[in-house]
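Consider the following input, taken from an annotated entry for Phosphoesterase RecJ domain-containing protein (Corynebacterium mycetoides).
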Amino acid sequence: MQLLFPGREEDFREVARLLVDAPSVAVVTHIKPDADAVGSACALTAGLRQLGISATAYIGQDFPHPENLDTVPFVDEIVYTHNAPEGALVVTVDCASADRTGAFRPVVESDRGRVVVIDHHASNPLFGGTNLVVGSESTTVIVRELFTYLGVELDADLAYCLYAGLVTDTGSFRWGSPRMHALAAELMGYGLDTRQIAMDLMDAMTPSDLREAGSVLAELELFEAGGLTVAVFTVDAARMAAMSQRAVEYIIDYSRSVQGADIGMVLKQYGRAYWNVSLRSSTVDVSRIATRLGGGGHIPAAGYSASGSRDDVVADVLRALR
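Applying the prediction step yields:
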């Protein structure tokens, strides 16, 4: 397969050299992981092991991944811990900022020299000693390119991991460049059941999920600010406890589809006054809004965390737009 990122050859070679020379590698992906996080971490860890490199995937939290990610190969080998490994080269994947590494943040921030950042978020502040931050559809696309420089041979399991990140982060190929289709074609050549993968990762929901998601959608509110219309959906703490991650992601994806709205905003309550906010748009650079409010992301998809009442969080976004 031809290079996915021509012009970045030396950047990929540098990271490949660091990985091959490392005594061991700790692959760290972000807390509250999605398919791109898990797919890139599992693929890179398995690819390095194929080369005889000691590698382990970590997430800096106590609780495991959402159940919709259970079918991603090697996901059960991820270590959930607050204890960073001693002496390993730390490679973060799909972490837009140091805080997204959770319990690993102190190590990442205090010893940047042993940190390699592999990521596709435009807002990434380059928090590693070495940074492979490339504008891309998903972090798994970058990992696939890195495999070319490492000499890792693809198989069905690696292809599944890479495809998981690609299909979810592109909204089932609704946005991205021709590169995503070229890579999807390559990965499908390893016998992937793409229909079942989509069902497992994104589509299948229980009757309870559908009822809860329906109640959230029914409470849609529209706000005007800065000449833009914002569609706001609120998933309070009780609903967060009742809904699967798959159902929450469904609402987030749906938020960009409201006719007449320029921005979709989904508030997810994780504490009495603590929220994770997801922003989506097909026309507005929401990464600029998220960055202003302490987060980051991509032009069409971004997010951040906020404290305060629900109305306060909405007001902050409207104020940023004005």
